Amino acid sequence: xxxxxxxxxxxxxxxxxxxxxxxxxxxxxxxxxxxxxxxxxxxxxxxxxxxxxxxxxxxxxxxxxxxxxxxxxxxxxxxxxxxxxxxxxxxxxxxxxxxxxxxxxxxxxxxxxxxxxxxxxxxxxxxxxxxxxxxxxxxxxxxxxxxxxxxxxxxxxxxxxxxxxxxxxxxxxxxxxxx
Length: 179
Description:
By secondary structure, the chain is mainly alpha-helical. 66% of the residues lie in helices and 8% in strands. The protein has 6 helices and 4 strands; from the N terminus they run ααααααββββ. A two-stranded antiparallel sheet has the order 1-2. It has a two-stranded antiparallel ribbon with strand order 3-4. β3 and β4 (174-177) form a beta hairpin.
């Protein structure tokens, strides 16, 4: 899926959609489809083959996000894209530490019957789907594909530090932007 997502996103962005809309579309659809497959696994994944197929499809849909949030960091700030990737991956991987602990606490109950065990795993998949949906909504609302004002960093000019986001200064002709 990731191999096809990049060229498709480039095609859409070059002809039909803005960068921001393209990034939002691919990331949000990735998260929503992954949540859908997790929900289906929770309710219909009673056999190993069905559960494995649904989980594989859900993880495959995450490949759409490569054309969304992964390259969005380059859109936001080409200069600091590596630093941003490190920060976002660090925060994002915290869920990989927390999720197994939560899953074990929910799915390994004192009940021994198979029906309760299936119901508890359904709760685990529901929580994961809710996290995906929450992420899709937040990304759709807050994401941007434009270069940010802080992307150039602070520069040394004429013996002083110049911030890229300078405030307008009053001159004889009115307000001008300091360069």
